[in-house]
Amino acid sequence: QLQLVESGGGLVQRGGSLRLSCVASGFTLDEYAIGWFRQARGKEREGVSCISGRTGTTYYVDSVKGRFTISRDKAKNTVYLQMDSLEPEDTARYHCAADLAGPNCAGTQLPALGSWGQGTQVTVSS
């Protein structure tokens, strides 16, 4: 079956960095777009970033542009989210998901039909 497993979350101080990993199985990274999404306490889930399966084109929500970088390692079937200059507003549970519609990202929008990981908590202290 399709499966995604996130790791790399933790507690950091404002201005610190984390690298999240999303290990995919049951498919290759060329097949589906992979996105990162987050949900903070009391807020709706939002899209953070996406990388397309077709070309590796990347997309970011405005609030993280210049601070976060999405990338992939096809040999390891892993997508990463490098998070720098972290702010308390970045505190959330972060999930990755494969868009089962195909390889193209729709910006950072939620997929209509996705395969989701279990999530990893990121907490940024002030």
Report on this model:
- It is a single chain.
- With 126 residues, the protein is an all-beta fold.
- Helix content is 0%, strand content 49%.
- The protein has no helices and 11 strands.
- The chain has strands at residues 3-7, 10-13, 18-25, 33-39, 46-51, 58-60, 68-73, 78-83, 92-99, 114-116, 120-125.
- The strands form 2 sheets. Strands 2, 4, 5, 6, 9, 10 and 11 form a 7-stranded mixed beta sheet that branches. Strands 1-3-8-7 form a 4-stranded antiparallel beta sheet, with no helix packed on it.
- It is globular.
- The termini are far apart.
- The mean pLDDT is 96.
General form? globular
Elements, N to C (H/E) = EEEEEEEEEEE
Low-confidence runs (pLDDT<50, min 5 residues)? none
Helical segment count:
0
Strand content: over 45%
The main pleated sheet reads as:
7 strands, mixed
Class by SSE composition: mainly beta
CA radius of gyration is 13 Å
Query: What is the rounded distance between the termini?
Result: 40 Å
The total count of strands amounts to: 11
Average pLDDT figure? 96
Provide the helix percentage: under 10%
Summarize the structure.
The protein has 126 residues and is mainly β. It contains no helices and 11 strands.
List keywords for this structure.
126 residues, mainly beta, seven-stranded mixed sheet, globular
